[in-house]
Amino acid sequence: MAQSQQKTNPGRFFEDYAVGDVLKHAVPRTVSGGERALYHALYPARHALYSSDSFAQGCGLASSPIDDLAAFHVVFGKTVPDVSLNAVANLGYAEGRWLIPVYPGDTLRSESEVIGVKQNSNGKTGVVYVRTRGLNQRDEVVMEYVRWVMVRKSDLDAPAPEPVVPELKKGLDAADLVIPEGLDFSAYDFDLAGEPHRWGDYEIGEQIDHVDGVTIEEAEHMMATRLWQNTAKVHFDLSFRPDGRLIYGGHVISMARALSFNGLANAQMIVGLNGGAHANPCFAGDTIKAWSEVLDKSETAAPGVGAVRLRLVATKGGAPFELRGADGKYLPDVLLDLDYWVLMPM
Amino acid sequence: MAQSQQKTNPGRFFEDYAVGDVLKHAVPRTVSGGERALYHALYPARHALYSSDSFAQGCGLASSPIDDLAAFHVVFGKTVPDVSLNAVANLGYAEGRWLIPVYPGDTLRSESEVIGVKQNSNGKTGVVYVRTRGLNQRDEVVMEYVRWVMVRKSDLDAPAPEPVVPELKKGLDAADLVIPEGLDFSAYDFDLAGEPHRWGDYEIGEQIDHVDGVTIEEAEHMMATRLWQNTAKVHFDLSFRPDGRLIYGGHVISMARALSFNGLANAQMIVGLNGGAHANPCFAGDTIKAWSEVLDKSETAAPGVGAVRLRLVATKGGAPFELRGADGKYLPDVLLDLDYWVLMPM
Amino acid sequence: MAQSQQKTNPGRFFEDYAVGDVLKHAVPRTVSGGERALYHALYPARHALYSSDSFAQGCGLASSPIDDLAAFHVVFGKTVPDVSLNAVANLGYAEGRWLIPVYPGDTLRSESEVIGVKQNSNGKTGVVYVRTRGLNQRDEVVMEYVRWVMVRKSDLDAPAPEPVVPELKKGLDAADLVIPEGLDFSAYDFDLAGEPHRWGDYEIGEQIDHVDGVTIEEAEHMMATRLWQNTAKVHFDLSFRPDGRLIYGGHVISMARALSFNGLANAQMIVGLNGGAHANPCFAGDTIKAWSEVLDKSETAAPGVGAVRLRLVATKGGAPFELRGADGKYLPDVLLDLDYWVLMPM
């Protein structure tokens, strides 16, 4: 009898990527109210625009979209089998933009273009840069971002490719942001949204401790990660990771963003991802808390809509507002350092 | 750099409530089949009217509504940041009525009117009475109930308000109950509902042991509580409650009600909440069982529809039908003592 | 006061079954996108036809159906209170066929016909054979299967019935399989499906190690089992099973099938269940892995659609491809041995 492992996906190794390749990722997904309900069960998400059709309609949208981070997770999850199955490390994000809200009934798929490769000096690994796009059933791009990962070589004798390192923006300018069509915060209901603080109430440099915490359970992070069809075994198989199942970094992002409601209830729509680092690994039993810092602000052309650039930090201990040690490295209790743009009523 | 906690919600203290105040609670919510599926995943809920569109249509409704207790949880969850964030104890419920079934696609919001305040003699706390209403996207009241809680004072020097204690009914009369429009049990299918016992088969004073039990897990009660956007930190943050995350009382109510299917499969629609006490705290690892007692019965004007008043008791040990000790206090294994009205085929 | 346990369901005992009886099972269920989202959260399910409306439409269907195993679980769950509440053992399955895909919005109910009874020589138990059918809201049979269970007698003095043992096929012939109306794989998108392997790439006798593993959590198997309204207490009540809550066998089936995506991504639609054994019990903490063996292949009349008969084995340890010991018995790490037919692009 033939015993085959060649039918299973071994993932791509560093030498399998070439600049200009377009990877068409598998398993498109139709989202529904089921994904929204699960998102609200898995995270303490309370932003009104993503909770209520009526509220979203009051803001000029057709109905309440799927959470922006849920859309990100769906798009991201599809890339894992082609991009990060043999990754040693997830090195960074840049130039992330949400272009069109995703609604129940939409079907998403993902594509990634290889935009950079650079072999490391040890000859065993290399860095791969991809620009990933999520597309809906009308082939419209709903979001895009650049990610770079360190990937192992399988064949150490494969020649090093010509190094290509893309020039990436340190952060998006406000002018790069795309405001969803029709968005209008001029009749925004602050009572229903949960807090009175508007765009003008936040100062650059201001820091906010979001106070609340959530202790993480194995069942929850696995359900979340599977929902996005991210099936990387490090998150699920304790026999593969006897020290503990590593929690998908996106679970920490969504948890911290949901916790940030307390102090940023009106930071409704995420439109830009400037960068992000998963500073330390997260495991079940950790209690996640979050704090934010206002990095920048800008007006927009949409009625009543302002943009705020925020740092969102997730921790598993320690005091708020502490990020790096004297050596410039992230403190051991810091899980996430995320830099993003949101839209807020003015 | 400014470090602000003033942007987060500190909750209201006793001196912040005045009789006549109307609190417009935040974060309206649109419900879908996702909430229904999760309700059935989190509780062993089997009442046919809430499981099948066809069955509900056979009872004169447009389709299968969201579980009555799910509607209650959605309405209740919104009140937590305004009513019980600084509560020392949840003291009681009264005059609860379900007025209009909630269907997938409906958007719910909540309002509470302060109907009583009474400072305690210690000068440190007081009791606040609110009448809460849940409204749908057509501004129709779908349910209402009175709740009273003991709340801390922040400013101990704040003067005691004129005490106002509302007169509340010990229990609703059958005439107070609102039967959903069109409800008709004259062609009720007992086979599909799961049990042959009709209204006439239950006697006042009869007690029913529901036999089944469920051992509670952290992930489940947190998912349930978040789904209702109740984000009180006692339920989620083990660093805040090192002795164990306290389980939301509503999780125990829904679990006990679902377990009561075994013996009360035809107790379909909850229409009245006469009162209720969370007798002891519940923690993960507890095994919940339930028993019921028939307190009262009444006919209704709707075809084939009778009303039954039930006591529903949830326990985490001990024998069924034991409620209070010789001292008149709830036994330590009693979690819940709920008094409610349901509709049943005659 | 009357204390009644007679209102709860004691389940049927062996002497309560007679050949020809038709059991109309309770609690019909309407499924929605909520069930689909939960299925994807509970299992690493990635088959594209069950994930994307667009992909399903590209295969000639109206939209993406509910997973075939989810439909099986819904149908099966309803039978538990009438068939297996007093079962000592679930002995086997045969002649299972999926006849019509189940879509969000469909309402399912179940009926079982008793087709065999045979008392065991010990006089204390007997074997009951039932043919179960799942029906939708148009009274169309969407699936059917035969199951036989060993059931306790309650009255040991009840006379042994005339033994009737139905003749059951050892396996369905390809000609027995029903191909969903309109199914057409001639424009099948292998990139979006996730693997290039088509019907012609699989050989009879070939074995595939699916590589990935999932460590099981209590919260997950209980949520899954409740979602299918299977409320057998062995799965939920630790006070009833102090050695551990026994995991519903269907949870293992769905987990193994989802894991088999890695190597069988194009084995899209399950259309036949030839047989199956739950070889050993599964408990929380076990890590499930899976391997498959190609047992048979056949062409079909539908355009581009081939059928493959597979053995799917789930394990909680040990090496792949090991099934039975020298004594012919299943090895202790084998959880499941399932024999089924799937449809695959040619």
TrEMBL record, chains A, B, C:
Pfam families to which the protein is assigned, alphabetical: MC_hydratase
InterPro entries in the cross-refs: HotDog_dom_sf, MC_hydratase, MCH/BMMD, Thiol_ester_hydratase_Rv0216
Source organism, top-level taxon: Bacteria
Name the UniProt record assigns to this protein: MaoC family dehydratase
Originating organism: Antarcticimicrobium sediminis
GO MF, one example: lyase activity
